[in-house]
């Protein structure tokens, strides 16, 4: 190579490329290094922009700046060609050889031609509205130094002095023109000006405009450098990443619609999920293995070329070209390896996102298709949040599973080349750990499976608690049920503790392994009679480090594969559940008679496929079109089951079900109304086009006009999740309105009249059921038999059997109670109360929820912006515990110090050996080295994170003497042993600390949620809270400790690395300021966006949880209305937003990685280049250069690991009996939900004596339920006070207050568990008392059939009918010792006979208690001591029922007269 350079440059072979010639740089150096190389770089960068997406139909209106740059680029392409003419033509015009000038000129011309084309392309892209890519403009100025230096050469050579020669003069003129053109180019870039026809400046992301599409259509350079992320990162730096829509749009191949299409093309019912994923995405994923293979091979170039370069510097016998090639190879290998590894990681993540999108889509689609056998909602949510993520660990683990053994084999071969068979000792030690690791991995997998089961139980329980939070607060059960959750959490933490300590064992074994292997290898090598040298030690230690990497990572790879296998099996079991199959369920033929709408024949149904639960048997039922069919019977007789059987929600064991017009669906109103978290209008329309006339008719028919007039935004008012902010009657009527608006032919109405008062019930009967739906076929279940007198047919069910069917006159007398003294009547729960979507005053429990004037209730999930606040770190530090946290940091520093001490001792040993060996040849070396100070006197050896400094004199000894050898080995082994103990201590302490933090954070989170006011749950979707208890808790348990461990290790390692670099070669410190500035700017630019993207990723995951939970709850309604396709589209929309955040976060991480890799490569290049220059000057120290290069090779990994682990840690941290009598007194109580609204309670004053029975009645909006909310302090009054036995309730602790109050709520709340746990969560009562309560509530037979007190109720108590659930809640209240009992319309879902028996039970059991009763059936309060009549939030009447009835114009008397039946007698 030297000869080639000498011929090209016209120089001697001894110095082919002189840097200096006289007073200026050498001309050959200027032309090759300062001109040809920058022009080549400009050509490559420009060519990369040829592929930008252009708009062919777009006619650019160039600004003057772009026109000037295009013109000068063309001129700069022509000038070098013109400059060649005087060179080629005789006699030549110098200053260099012709070949050199032609090469430099030709490269320059090609570069500017390439640049001109790039500028022309960019004008036709959105870059035409700006200055274009900054890097491209800067590259255009790189050749400027060569032009300036050449101009100086002409000046020094006197080109302008006589005699003037035409050749040199013409070249000088062209040179000046090139400089002028370059200055003009810079002017065009700096001052772009305006186009001739001004165009409106459009920001990159204007209002309402979709952001840019990621990656698609970008040039390969843009893809490799992630330049297409610039707009996104700019928005992040400006703080404009506030919602998922602010991220860039997904590439086409990552869009959920595309993924669903590709996946469905491979998917068949019953197929194996892994086979389908392989068919859809496997070929692309397997092809990435080639990228992985090449990247792995390039990883070995660093140690090998390092060895060659150090050998070159040490021996000094090879020609300079060899050293140059080694240096260029070191740089090129680092750059190419960085690019390939980066692209591999990026592409693997994209495949993982493809699989994730497909899996989440198929999970939701399966949820829509589930048959009657459904897993609990908490389990399905875990599949979405945990198992789907763990399944995708396979993507990163599979290629590592073969890549790591390959890397191990190559490393061992290279190690053998360095130290011979001495490496076998270290290898045997490493291999001995493999079976140990296998045992640990197996135990981890087993514990992981058990932990997931406990987590499922915990999340399921939390789901149920959230759904019944009002009842929990009424009863004051926060502590008792919180204890149940903590018990589940304790079992989960028990398994997690096993996992963490096993992980700690892995960390200890693999962290101590490098030192131990090094000890074994070097001791074996020395004992075999060899002598250690610096080159061998450098290379061997680098290879040991590469050996440790696969051995260290392999357990995690295996663990990832095993976790993926566990989650795959769980998802597969879910996908294998039987589907809802209407074709198989219903008879393929319509009913035999054309006039028949529904026909069942010998049909047997059950809730489970084997018929172990109560069966429903219909021998024969035929319903004609247009009929109104009433369904009656006792509680639990199977009325709701019959409607579920018709809709296909049960297992049909035999018989036939024929429905006319099945494809049109059903109009279904379930007994427990299903309401979405949306506006009232959206709930009613349910995806159907808005028809103003039809909508108006439906509102009138369902008696919703008056309710909407009260609400702040009318039908645009948002209701809470599951309608929690509405009264039971409002929910029922909205659900009924939704069914009516769908305009179906067959309607199944499950007791929609139960939750409304007499006026509204009469209205619904005449205007809706007999009015708007008069032309349809209707099946109506109800306990209010007086409304069935106009039915065409009534069905009587008993124990799941249809026992009688006939006209109302025959059937109704069989089920009606004894003649009543008073007609039934009742009141609906106060809509102003239930529509407490408005903002109450801030309660003492802590949170405030405000609804805007537009009626919006849902509070957008908050997202902190900017850097993580210090108090977040402090909170985690406190969760770990001050003492434990300090112990962890101390053990980390101790481990690092002992590791450095071992390296330093080995360094001293080797330096003594080399000094003894070379004493005759390097007699002056000690003096020279000693003059440089004690820090440089030692040969410092490379080991990650090492800090080796000689701080005290050491005894000198003859090398390899037996006693001295034993001394060195003993000290080395002792230090290594201490390091091993410190490593173990650090691993155990870290596991214990993170376990403590996990327990503390969950306990704090649960406490905050349980103590939050009800308004928080009204406005916060359950999915959002569940996301905290599922994904974020899993993050605190597993992901955060893992990343935090890496962060601490990287920080300690980086400090040691920088210290060693500074101490070994102090001049390297000159590189630290610019490197630190660049590093700081890059990482801060990255963190600003990465932080927000990770937060947005968590933020956009909550709606997916909520949507899935909503879907599972309303599945029968969805199917009946035919809305499954619309809900699937909504899921894809939510999934796309989450995928956008996930993809953007992944891409920004790769953006950072490639920049840090290139920074490391630049440092390596600088060190190697300076080393070559020093070598030429005879100043190079091979040991120190080798040490510096070794550290520089590992610098990139530490910088990258530090930033990424710190950012991930940031993101993950964002995931914390006084009542003796029972008197009640309200004193001038005022309650207002929001300023501007009427008072819900307006100066309410009354007193209830101890033991008195008070009935509370009033029309809609009168404030009945508001009384209970104030009494229980779910809402604080605006003024006034409430006294219990003379004590102000506002002065009492909430737990103390609620423990003395009992309530039987309108909506029964049960949780999964046994009957005993639901009756007595605190375990206070004996079995006899429990059975007595069940007997008094007429539930004992049903409970015995379920297995007694230890029988499981199922999720939400679904093994019981709704009426039976209410009875169980009543039994729970019967057990209480509270002096005050509140009954809130608690018997609306039971039949009349049972209701009468229950009223007798309540009267008997609560004879000495104060009872406040709100009831729809006025006969339930006619025996009360007094009746309180509310009107518009005021006390209108208060007196005994008899007295109020005798008063003229009494409101109570008017309520009685509004009864649907006129049979009356005196009380």
Q: Number of helical segments? A: 47
Using only CA atoms, what is the Rg?
41 Å
What structural class do the secondary elements suggest? Answer: alpha/beta
- The assembly state of the depicted protein chains is single chain
**Shape category:** elongated
Strand content: 5-15%
Instruction: Tell me about the largest β-sheet.
Output: 6 strands, mixed
Could you walk me through the main structural features you see in this protein, from its secondary elements to its overall organization?
By secondary structure, the protein is an alpha/beta fold. Helices cover 59% and strands 8% of the residues. The chain is built from 47 helices and 21 strands. The protein has a six-stranded mixed sheet with strand order 7-8-9-5-10-11, sandwiched between helices. The chain has a six-stranded mixed sheet with strand order 17-18-19-14-20-21, with helices on both faces. Helix 15 packs antiparallel against helix 19, helix 16 packs antiparallel against helix 34 and helix 18 packs antiparallel against helix 32. The chain is elongated. The C terminus is likely disordered.
What can be said about this structure in brief?
A 6-stranded mixed β-sheet has the order 7-8-9-5-10-11, with helices on both faces. It has a 6-stranded mixed β-sheet with strand order 17-18-19-14-20-21, sandwiched between helices. Strands 13-12-15-16 form a 4-stranded antiparallel β-sheet. With 1467 residues, it is an alpha/beta fold.
